[in-house]
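Let us work through a complete example step by step.
Step 1: write down the sequence.
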Amino acid sequence: MSAGRSLFFIALGLFGLYTLEFGVVGILPAIIARYGISVAQAGWLIGLFALIVAACGPFLVLWMSRFDRRKVLTGSLLVFSLCSLLSARMDSFGALMALRIPSAMLHPVFFSVAFAAATSLYPPERATHATAMAFVGTSMGLVLGVPLTTWIQAKMSYEASFVLCAVINLVAALGLWMMLPAQSKTQTPSYGRQLAILRKSGVWLAVAMAVCVFGAMFSVYSYAAEFLARETSLSGETISFLLVVFGVGGVLGNLLAGRWLGRNRVRAVLLYPMVLASAYVVLHVFGSASLTVMLPVCLLWGAAHTSGLIVSQVWLISAAPEAPEFATSLYISAANLGVVLGSALGGAFITSMGMHGALWSGWLFAALVVVFVILRIRLSDNGESLRFARLIDR
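Step 2: predict the structure and record it as tokens.
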């Protein structure tokens, strides 16, 4: 079996998953009009999804870890596809919300198993490369999922936007079933061995680091459109274009971060919060009504922002390599918590300081990232292995 083909369908599945999760944002006006609900009610399509992911992720991943990866991945994608297809025909908002629940419960399962499967396709020295390539699917889903569903809904129909998501997930399911090799049962760690990672201080320090990384990212990104509108006075269409540029930068940033992590993980993780903080400095200093100036600024911002996905995940997995799927589920919960905290603190800073307050919130979380990374290197029970890995990376 070709590792490259399997990895492609893993990335496609991640693209389908994130299109399913966030694609509704692109058709929110149509959902509001269709069901006669408020904006706040419609927002629960995202809020409930994230809440279920954060709360249920580690438990469901632990339970599903005993099953064959190929069956878990394809089964999850088939559920995503079916829920998307049924969503196109729902007559009530309550039914549409109910169809989000199975997908939200399987989100952390698919995400965790997908990355474990991706790294298993390559030798250990190329594990970071596999993670970076899989994250391309995640990045593309986050970047293109919303505009793609918006475009399909505008050009074809409301129902077609859901059908598109269903088709993407179905194709990924079929591809993985044909390309991904079955997993040997001896590869699955016991429940006790997986839960044992919770006794490691290095894991909790890595979880705290991941929370702060996402806090730093979403302190600003949660208000990206409004920030650009107020600080640059550019038109809505131009801001939409800049957000696409931001997404392109994100894809490139993930690939570059994967390469740097492969060369020297500790150094790359320590430098990441400084790079993100510097991107916020550039945004603060050079943000203007000039499209020529804003293109490279948003490209840099997108690259620095999205790199946090792979940096924080690789750092957490390295704290518990004996249970990568369960560790990834902790990463997903930490990421969702970080999004909530970053959005809340960024909003509070904006209220008290104006739009630039979001940047100060981002800088605060970035500083905490450095603190937690240094604490893990010096104090965690993984300190010896980290120092050894650093010497090897040199």
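Step 3: interpret the result. The two ends are 33 Å apart (CA to CA).
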